[in-house]
């Protein structure tokens, strides 16, 4: 799960472009990943299993929480 959150965080940071300093972008990407993790955990989604299930969890979180996180 941590690897998936890191991938989401890095991808989100790349999508933002260069609107602020590196520290600002790092902090915002950290907050984005934190909110995403809390949202996934608060909704009781089973976390575990193989890479395929983890990838499905990643896709689900990206689909359902991407708007709310921006």
What distinguishing features does this structure have?
single chain; 70 residues; mainly alpha; 3 helices; 0% strand; elongated
Which helices and strands, and how do they pair?
Elements: H1 2-15, H2 22-42, H3 51-69
Helix pairs in contact: 1-2, 2-3
Tell me what the structure shows:
With 70 residues, the chain is an all-alpha fold. The chain has one domain (2-69). The protein is 77% helix and 0% strand. The chain contains three helices and no strands. The longest helix has 21 residues, at 22-42. It is elongated, with a radius of gyration of 12 Å. The relative contact order is 0.17. The model has no long low-confidence stretch (mean pLDDT 73).
Could you give the order of the helices and strands? Answer: HHH
Number of helices: 3
Strand content is under 5%
* Straight-line N-to-C gap: 21 Å
Q: Mean of residue pLDDT?
A: 73
Report Rg: 12 Å
What is the overall silhouette?
elongated
Task: Tell me the count of domains.
Answer: 1
Poorly predicted runs: none
> How many strands appear in the DSSP assignment?
0
Helical percentage? over 70%
Q: What summary fits the major beta sheet?
A: none
